[in-house]
Amino acid sequence: MNDDNRLFTRIAPLFDVGLLSEASVLVAGCGSGGSQVALQLAMSGIRNFFLLDKEELEVENVIRHACGLRYVGQDKIDALADVLLDRNPAININGYKEDIMTYVGLAELVKQSTVVILATDNEPTRYLLNQLCVETQTPFVVGKVFTRGIGGEVFSYRPGEGGCLACLERTLERSQYREGIREIDLVSEEEREKLYGMEISEIRDSPGLNVDISFITSFHTRFALDAIARTLPERPKHLPQIQENYVVWGNRPTHPFTKHFQLQRITLAPQEGCLVCGKRETE
User: Fold this and answer.
1) Domain locations in the chain?
2) Which one of 63, 64, 81, 130 has the lowest number of neighbouring Cβ atoms within 10 Å?
3) Where are the alpha helices (H) located in the chain, listed in sequence order?
4) Domain spanning 3-282 has what CATH number?
5) Are 46 and 21 in contact (CB under 8 A)?
6) Between residues 27 and 272, the one the model is more confident about
7) Contact criterion met (CB below 8 Å) for 203 and 192
8) Is 73 left (phi over 0), alpha (psi -120 to 50) or beta?
9) DSSP category for residue 276
10) How many CB atoms lie within 10 A of CB 203?
11) What mean pLDDT is reported for the chain?
12) 249: closest CA among 213, 210, 208, 216?
């Protein structure tokens, strides 16, 4: 038996990795979150990846990224591709060094994908991808880490079943664990630059340690696998369907969380009057 055939022998009896191998995953944003989700998916049997990111890997990225120091200076898509292929040489990867906001082929790329891993760090790109996924009826999963890594959230868009990202933003005030949260990318550009520039000592480790991020990327990966499983005629064994489509996770007892490892589960329905998915339903 060659190495390729032996890769999944330990988990094959428990998990039908072969059923997932034909799925195509678009990783939009190959930073700390996107790279770790991509790696986890590769180790779960996913073989087809579209990697989309315009940036190069910098030294400051390495401590929270799936790629190490030897990749510094390389395009993130190329560095991540090398890491994924090292785990499974049978993986098929197409890389796109493009700006998500201006890439003319983005809609077609979304349409070709079984699920989109939305791992960008700003709202404009998230809402653009949300709109394209609604238009093409493509599932996506988005993850966010809260400032200083105190926790985070993961949301899964399920076409025809649940609300979209715009629906979620309209209802966030109903989530007790979102009260007082300041996500790094929701502040002004000037303040955001100060945070990343480490001028504010309280949050110089923003958005948290890699272990803090890893909790969120694990949820992100699990929801992505669930999204893929929902498209299959036969669901993988031991991968029961996740009922909720939105989770908020607290890493430690820092406001608004009151204890370590605090979890809130929510099932978000399409919101009446949503300007994105509501408009599509009426067309």
Assistant:
1) 3-282
2) 63
3) 3-6, 32-42, 76-87, 106-112, 123-136, 165-171, 189-196, 210-229, 277-282
4) 3.40.50.720
5) yes
6) 27
7) no
8) left
9) T
10) 18
11) 86
12) 216
**Strand, helix or coil for residue 51:** strand
Task: Of 256, 145, 261, give the one whose Cα is nearest residue 206.
Answer: 145
What's the confidence (pLDDT) of residue 175?
Answer: 60
Rounded Cα distance between 232 and 228, Å, is: 7
Task: Mention every residue, 6+ apart, whose C-beta is less than 8 A from residue 33.
Answer: 119, 143, 145, 213, 216, 217, 220
Residue type, 237: K
Sheet holding 92-96, edge to edge: 92-96, 48-52, 24-28, 115-118, 140-145, 151-157, 246-250, 262-266
Segment holding 154, helix H or strand E: strand 151-157
Q: For residue 12, give the amino acid letter.
A: A
Which are the contacts of 240, defined by CB distance < 8 A and separation ≥ 6? none
End-to-end Cα separation, the chain, in angstroms:
54
Structure tokens of 270? 């399409």
3-state helix, strand, coil in the chain (%, to 5): 40, 15, 40
Per residue in 146-174, pLDDT tens?
A: 888 889 999 999 999 999 999 998 777 55
Nearest CA to 143 out of 34, 24, 277, 57 is that of: 34
| 125/11 Cα distance (integer angstroms) | 36
Please state the pTM of the whole predicted model. 0.87
Strands 48-52 and 262-266: unpaired
C-alpha 97/C-alpha 159 separation (Å) is: 28
AA identity, residue 65: H
